[in-house]
Amino acid sequence: MTLMPDPGRLSDVTETARLGRAESAHDFDPAADADSAVANAAASASVVLAGRAAIRGRRQWPLPKQADPDAPLLVVEGLTTHFTLGDSTVHAVDGVSFTLEDGEALGIAGESGCGKTTTALSLLRLLPANAEVVGGSVKLFGIDLCTKSEKALRRYRWREISIIFQGAMNALNPVKRVGDQVAEPIELRVGLSKADAARRAGELLELVGIPRSRGRAYPHELSGGMRQRAMIAMALACDPAIIIGDEPTTALDVMVQAQILELLEDLRAKLGLSLILITHDLSVLAETCDRVMVMYAGRVAEEGPVGRIYGTPRHPYTQMLLAAFPDVHSGRRDLGTIPGSPPDLRTPPPGCRFHPRCPAAMEVCRTDVPPEVRFDDRVRVACHLYPPGSDGVPVPLPRPAPVSAEAAVGPEAAP
Amino acid sequence: MTADTRARDGDELIRLEGLEVHFPIRGGLRDLVRRRPSGFVRAVDGIDLTIRRGEVLGLVGESGSGKTTTGRVIVKLTRPTGGRLLLDGEDVTGVWGGDALRRYRRRVQLIFQDPYETLNPKQTIHDFVAEPLEVQRIGNAAEREQRVLDAIDTAGLRPAADFAFRYPHELSGGQRQRVVIAGALVLDPAIVVADEPVSMLDVSIRTEILNLMLDLRRQRDLTYLFITHDLSVAWVIADRIAVMYLGKVMELGTAGEVIGDPRHPYTRALVSVMPTPEPPQPGLRARRVILAGETPDAAHIPTGCRFHPRCPLAEQAGIMARCRAEEPPLIDLGNGRASACWLAESGKPLPAVERRMGAVAPVGDAR
């Protein structure tokens, strides 16, 4: 089994293919492998390649001029974003690396204040005035967006990467008709005529399940689910390569949430969209994403294929986070707790930022930042329990006290 | 007679009989001139429900189901327009204002969703928790002091004396919700109505608060009405679950039964779309029954079974005519289970939903 410390460079497709071959040669426990794409990683690498050409071939407008047609869609390396609060600096995002391939869906999960949203907003520098990207690179089609001027970045906002925000009511303009709001970016960014933009807006509304005639409605005339659909239509307006959903279903009812997630899945299949879904609810990502990245206190704790992260979580934080969700389908009712709360990022703890809350914390965790280690099953973990060269077998944690089972079922037991 | 109204006497703490809350719609000038509303929003449309002493009853529903309004009637923040509310067998429907209401509130307390809005930013924790004692004129200053500190301590804010003189902004979200719980407990109530007490909280804090509520119930013999949109939270904390839809109870039973073997198509659809933190498996998607459209407007409730326009079973089971014409009562299925569905009448499990492959749920706008 080969192990490689990962500085976040494995995005390169040739390297992925190489890794895939290594993996199939070593036959990484296929029985436990829920993700068939991983079990057959060599094949999947070529699928990615074919997918890339096909998806880019379907684009409505050409790639940006400086684009390298052979570069992966998005490669983020060592992204670091700081906020300035008075005299102190908030280390909101600290050396985050990840990649996104064409047609792939990546989920970013973690508690509030873990830097999920800041990471996403940093890609296009859509940050508040007191925040600044201080390091790292964001390469879209091989073009480094971090070195672009504010004006040059506009070419990429909405046209290449667009965002669906959480509160659709706040993100939509209350005094403009929904159809006009969808048409506006098409007119302004793509340069279609007013009539053409309106026609395309109508098509987009139908695509997301809003009757074309409802385009004449104002946001307040639509229900919450409809507004979120309109937001998705707006995000799709300029046929972007990447859509970022920042908690796109959090404020919605369960059934509407299911409808919106299904819509995103459908659109992904139909349009070859690449998605980044940000949510605090790990259970939402399981059915929607290919890969999941768990963040803690501005850093990546663990990242890998969904089947791996959910099936055999390695990082103690991932394990505890998963245990904190009840599962009505498997019958798991007792909930694990994660004692304490995420650290104040003005003065993050030294070493591993999770160590004050970690039941498996060792001496080294207090002093040394754990390196990111990538294992054969394409999972990378930043935890001292899994040092470079280890076998990567998940270390079970001492289970925290669950919600008392006898209290929860009391009257059932004695009807 | 429904299953629930047969709960043993003395066993029940709160009882709702045919409870109705209809809000008048007063819109335009015409309504003003005619001096009568043009219609009613039937937020709660006739429910019978019993909350037994010492149990946690989970009241689950989507927005617009009337779950919050039901809770507000029980804590007497909303006047019902019909039906009765009984506490300990005594009819308290007419109790409004004065000493009677004060006595009632001593026994029935409320926890709101948003601890940020519940707390007064200019009030210390101590003053917030002490306020109910002052309103109720309980004990002398020293006794009150002790009870306040006890309540803060019980809610897990320790040392209590340390927390007592802090302000809300000095506390984290979880701690604030603990303060709200301390305020609800200081009067030593018999029942606490908790309206979405954990939906604003992060996962890790959510578990803490749920654990605290369960611990308190054991220590203090508390009864909870736990109102939530999240079936999985209800499943963790509740003994019994009542599922509401458009102002009616659709299904009632123990948490395990309602989740594990739902007898109403609406409940089953809700359960099927609950996200799971398990690794994705083939066939998982096929399990989902995603209902089309959204909960209709409570001012225009469909005739017959109010769920029939969205029901995935009515047409398939060939009973659509009946569903459209006749509203099913909450049918007693024995052992305290009940379902408001004609298909449940036989007592058999529901038929499976035939999935039309490739069919994307059509979207109807609710308005």
Short summary:
Helices cover 34% and strands 19% of the residues of chain A. Chain A is α/β, with parallel strands linked by helices. Chain A has a domain at 4-112 and 275-382.
Please describe what this structure looks like:
The complex is a heterodimer of chains A (415) and B (367). Chain A contains 15 helices and 13 strands. In chain A, the strands form 2 sheets. In chain A, strands 1-12-13-11-10-4-9-8-7 form a 9-stranded mixed beta sheet, with helices on both faces. Chain A has a domain at 4-112 and 275-382. Residues 1-47 and 400-415 of chain A have low confidence and may be disordered. In chain A, 34% of the residues lie in helices and 19% in strands. Chain A has helices spanning 13-26, 36-39, 41-57, 116-123, 150-153, 168-171, 178-190, 194-207, 224-236, 254-271, 282-285, 306-311, 316-323, 363-367, 405-413, and strands at residues 4-5, 74-85, 88-100, 105-109, 131-140, 143-144, 161-164, 242-246, 274-279, 291-296, 299-305, 372-374, 380-382. In chain A, a hairpin with a 2-residue loop joins strand 2 and strand 3 (88-100). Chain B has helices at residues 29-34, 67-74, 98-107, 115-118, 125-135, 141-154, 160-163, 173-185, 203-220, 231-237, 255-260, 265-272, 284-287, 320-325; strands at 12-25, 39-52, 56-60, 82-87, 90-91, 108-111, 191-195, 223-228, 240-245, 248-254, 331-334, 337-339. Chain B has a domain at 4-34 and 41-262: Rossmann fold. With 367 residues, chain B is α/β, with parallel strands linked by helices. Chain B starts with 11 loop residues before the first strand and ends in a 28-residue tail after the last strand. Chain B has 14 helices and 12 strands. The interface between A and B is large, with 63 and 64 residues.
